[in-house]
Amino acid sequence: MEVTIEKNSAQVVINLSGRLDTTNSEAFDKKIADFIDTPPADMVVDCRELTYISSSGLRVFLSLQKSANKAQKKLTFRNINAEIKEILDMTGFSQILSILK
Amino acid sequence: MKQFFSSLTNQLVFFIITMAVVVFAAAFSLFFLSERDAVVTKAYKLAESSLLYSYEFVEGNLSEIEHETAAIKQWLSADFNNDKEIVDALSRMMVLDKLIVGMSVAYDSLPKMIYVSRDSANHLSVKLLNDKKSYNYFEMDWYKTPMESGKNVWSEPYFDTGAGNDLMATYSDVLFDEKGSKIGVVTADVTLATFSRLLERDMPYLSAESMIISKNGLLIAHNDLSKLGQAVGDLNVRNKIMFSMQVSATDWRMLTLTDKEEVLADFHKMSIMQAIIFLLGIAAIVVFLRLIIKHITRPVVKTEEELKIATKIQMSMLPKVFPPFPSRNDVDIFAYIKPAKAVGGDLYTFLIKDNKLYFLIGDVSGKGVPAALFMAITKSTFDSLVNYFSDPADILRAMNDLLTEHDSFDMFVTLFVATLDLQTGEMRYCNAGHNPPVILSGGNKRAFMSVKPNIPAGVMKDYPYETEKLQLDNHTTLLLYTDGLTEAENSRKELFGNQRLLDTLANASVDEQPNRLIKRVEDAVQRYVQDAEQNDDIALLAVNYSFPHELRLPNKMSIISNLNSFLETIGEELNLSPALTMKLNLALEEVVVNIIRYAYESETKEEQIVIRLTHTESQLVFTIEDSGIAFDPTAITPVDISLPVEDRPIGGLGIHLIQQIMDEVSYNRIGNTNQLQLKKIIHNS
């Protein structure tokens, strides 16, 4: 699991690659803790390189979405592959996350 | 050949004809030998009678000549010393006896010999000899031999070049004076051609030769004149019938030789005819015998054919397709059955139901048709009972109930009934008087299973059969067999025995394919019994079991990556799509995370989680076992996915994912373990 964060005045782009599972979801959570606590701007989560996600990863997505909503900032998920999309569908996440097709 | 003897008619015909041929051949040989002796004896008689005629003539003539010289001697001794008188006497004698071609008187004291001879024109002429110069008779055999021995002799035959080139013999009679001293000899030269001509007549066979042989073995007379004077040793006497008689006047022998072949020719012809008639007779008997026996044995043959059909039906009741579960990698089975008679009482069967292997081996008491029928009842009873019972003792008790219902059967069956949970390797079994199976597992363990013997089914109603349990190790083979194996006898009536069975399996690997294992046992028994007759059915059933795909994990979150590679391996092996592999990975991760979090509560104490996979072509079954506190993930209320994001709780996602991905999720608390089973239907391309 690799996380890179690009920040500019307009938005924050979080690039995810590899597997987001129980072993690293906590680390991921910590890495983006600042954005969860106080979302600075609009955020984009780019999942182009994301191959796997478990419920713990989804939970981090959910926290992020919740705080973005609270702070009235825009959060979009993009480049989600079919397998991950299926999991989001299963869990109803595709309805509560704004996913860029 | 085996094919030929499998027919009862052929068997009977073969044995009857063999008997007939032996008896007839013995009679024929006896007849042949005695008849041949009779023919030969007859040939001797014939030779004797034809020779006797010639014999009397020869004997008569020769003794006449001896008498004649004796008469001359008498005249000479009666002061008959005038030469002229001697010549007259000799001449008279020669006129009387035409056989004599020359006579002489020869003296010893001085060279004096009076010789009267007959020429071919029957004229007599006289020769007087007074000196040794012209003819030294002292050195001649006809003179020397009788003078030295003092005995009258017949000379060996010789060719006289003087008188007509005839074969001659000379009789020499010794002259004595009053004092008994030898003073000379009287001789008579006899032509022998007459005898040969005589022998020419009355030959008993075409190939016959008649002859007179001198003391020294020269031919004096022969029906073939060209052979005269030859030595008898030149004659071919091989394969000839020889008849001979001594001519009493001389040392001569008369002899008849006849080709045995000619004598026996007619007899041989007749014997060949007889042999042909004999063979034709046998052939005719074979044909008639076949017809008659076929007719007589028709009911027996029918029964035999029906038995063959019965064998087929009976064998078709037993599973015969191997390997029976080609898509499974956790269990493989092979079976072998060899009835001693057409139909047998041994049985085996197996089936998989709810991922449990049910298997059985049994041996019905007795043999033949009754045993076969009882076996069929036993087998079908088992087949229907597995639909209602899953516990071996329950099955066995129900079978026992049915089999004891009819006391009149008076039959029973030894059974070993077992189930094997393919997911966990737990074997449950119940024995009814059957031989304990052999278990082969790691560490060269080759042993008879510890089994409570109990009593055979069908003996006692309500016998309390109870299930026993054994946890099989990974890679275990069970060999079930009937006592036809351990009690197979060699020609010395010694049993194959338990030890030999264990020895046979000692070299077998635990994971040896069941068909190879059975072949190994089969070969060992075959080598042991050799050609000895099999007197009991033999049934063998080998079950090879290995755990399904298994992963053992410690209760640490960090091991999630192990789970990942475990599933990658399975996905590749079972040719699953990457998307499916990922989803299975996700479901299992959720399960394992739940166990670590809730069942074990803390990661500090080392615990274990076991994941096993069994599969068929259409489904995957994962079993996840842990020994933590009772924790039923299915009892967790799944998240309501319709809630808006603000109302979404953080938990409850895991179980929701599991249930979404899997087709069936079930939880069991067994003893101190939580057992969660996940089923996934797959559609393999």
What features would you describe in this structure?
The complex is a heterodimer of chains A (101) and B (685). Chain A has 101 residues and is of the alpha/beta class. Chain A has five helices and five strands, in the order E-E-H-H-E-H-E-H-H-E. Chain A has helices at residues 22-31, 33-37, 55-71, 82-91, 93-96; strands at 2-7, 11-20, 42-53, 75-78, 99-100. Chain A has a five-stranded mixed sheet. In chain A, helix 1 packs parallel to helix 3. Chain A starts with a strand and ends with a strand. By secondary structure, chain B is α+β, with helices and mostly antiparallel strands. In chain B, a hairpin with a 3-residue loop joins strand 23 and strand 24 (619-626). In chain B, helix 2 (8-77) runs antiparallel to helix 6 (260-296). The chains are: A alpha/beta (101), B alpha+beta (685). The A-B interface holds A 19, 21-23, 51-56, 58-59, 62-63, 65-66, 69, 82-83, 86-87, 90-92, 95-97 and B 557-558, 560-561, 564, 578-579, 582-583, 585-586, 589-590, 593, 639, 641-646, 648, 650, 653-654, 656-657, 660-661.
Which structural traits does this protein have?
A: 101 residues; alpha/beta; five-stranded mixed β-sheet; 46% helix; globular; B: 685 residues; alpha+beta
Short description:
The complex is a heterodimer of chains A (101) and B (685). Chain A is of the alpha/beta class and 101 residues long. Chain A is built from five helices and five strands, in the order E-E-H-H-E-H-E-H-H-E.
Strand arrangement, major sheet of chain A: 1-2-3-4-5
Oligomer type: heterodimer
What percent of residues of chain B are in strands?
Answer: 25-35%
Instruction: Indicate the mean pLDDT of chain A.
Output: 88
* Major sheet characteristics of chain B: 7 strands, antiparallel
Helix content of chain B: 25-40%
Q: List the secondary-structure elements of chain A in sequence, H or E.
A: EEHHEHEHHE
Average pLDDT for all residues of chain B: 86
Beta strand count of chain A? 5
How many helices of chain B does DSSP assign? Answer: 15
Gyration radius of chain A, rounded: 12 Å
